[in-house]
Amino acid sequence: MDTMYIEDLQGEQYPLQAAVDRERGINGEKSISLTLYEEKWNEDYFKNIDTCWKVGFDDDEYEVVIPRAKARGKKAVWELKAVHRFFVDMRNSWKYETHTGSMTIQARMNFVFNGSGYNFVIVDSFGAKDLENFGDSSRLDLFQKILETYEAEFEIVGNTVYIRTRIGQDTDFVYHRNLNLKDITIEKDSTDFSTYGEGFGKDGLHVTYTSPLASIPGIGIRHAPPVRDERYTVESSLFNAVKKGIDESLVVSITVDVAELQAQGYQDAPNEGDRIFLMDDRLNLDIETRIVNISESFNSKGELISQKVTISNKSIRESYQSQLSNTVKQLQDLFAGRGNIPYNVLPEAIRLATAALLSAQTELIFENGIVAVSKNNKNLVVLLNSAGLGISTDGGQTFENAITALGINTNLLTAGAIHTNHIQIIGTESYFFWDGNEFMAMDPTDQRKYVKIKPGFIDISGGALRLRREDDYTVIQDGILRYQFSLSAHQPFFMGDEVRQVQYGFETSSHQLQNAQYYAFRHEGRYLCVFLGLTTSDPRYEATVEVVKQGTQETLAAYKTTATEDTVGQLLRVDLGPPTGNETGIYVRFRSGYTGNKVYVRVIRTYLEG
User: pTM here?
Assistant: First the structure.
């Protein structure tokens, strides 16, 4: 472990020796707490410690958020609470722009991380998701919203954030009462426990869900806050959201106090997210589960002296519910984290590479091979022999990243620049080729269908172009532009009974709103613009004009004046919302502030924009 340090607000670093407690979990938490006593070696900076100072610990940098000073005898003591710099930096930076509509996780991460000082790598595949008004918040809040929406997890290495469907590895690590397990605590919290919920979606969509636990005497129906979200249009999706809220309302956790094996010569070090085995005959536990949080204590030399792990809350909650309803017999059948991580790329090549490397393991160990094992984590292994080079993250069980005679297989490649002459990506529905001169995507079943991209030129054959705007409206569909700039005026004029056409417009002396004209259009632009002139014959009485929506008769815009001459005109601009492509229309209506007083209106131009 690297030497600890503390850094003041001017960037000056000082040596640091202190006992440290560290918390880290799959929810992204990474924080430390430390106690610092006043000594001669720290007298240069001890009394100046303040919030926003930095602490370097185990290759990570933290920022002090809660410094607490205490008096102990004749000297002072600092108790410092610090969080990883990533969370502070992202919390203190704001994104003022907003986006609405469907976006990929790549696009949302670009939106949040651009200019943040941090990079990101999306390791697994995620589908596009819809979000309303995504933005106008801190980068940290937006990042957390991305994780919730796409059901993703992350880990931080240096300044790079890795996004996965699930962090951690499948390991063969075992916590056993007779080996390394000191104590085990099961905690249940039913403060917000619910057994019944309702959901309300778009166009009257309504679902209900009742937990089986509601039939148990003493529990019964316990209502949860309803889910109200018009983004839900499919019954099954809304039902699953309601059910998830009910099922997760019961909070159950198991905390395991384990012995530190490194002090006994073992190097295994499970991390948050890892799948491990837990055995304790006192509670009849023999299960495979997942670590969701790790609490560690280090002495002033940086040596790990104690460790507590919290295992999968989701699995424990499900098992407790099942015990209540007597629907399962063993806790182990309900714990999450079973099975291997699915290979996303080249599973057969990975299997062959793993077999080739492992077949030479005897030669490796006893003759002319090399095995490199991480000092801090035995699961991280590099294997080199005559068959090739392999990198493993599960203690040598599989080598997803390998170089053999079969080629180079990797599930993650990070590089500042890649220099190559040709790239081929062979999918089930598309082929992609990039030879340095052009990019080409081709239909494998019909090579007449392709897209070529060259500098200054795009060639599309056998298909069509679809272009969506930022608000998700399709501007070009199947190569056809879907846009209409002008509005169509009614012919003959759509005038009210008390309206008369004059030389440059329309006249009325009615105190009631009168139609001057009707305009039809297709909602293909966001903003409706009506440029008009309005005057009154007597400045004592106002002239009023309104733009009224067809059907609902909603007043979209209005303008009043006592001017007797019109030399400039007035622009009424209405936000119609994201375009729908539907046919609609508006009325231009006007009236006098006093019956008998003549007022005049003329419509100069009507159009859509944006």
Answer: 0.52
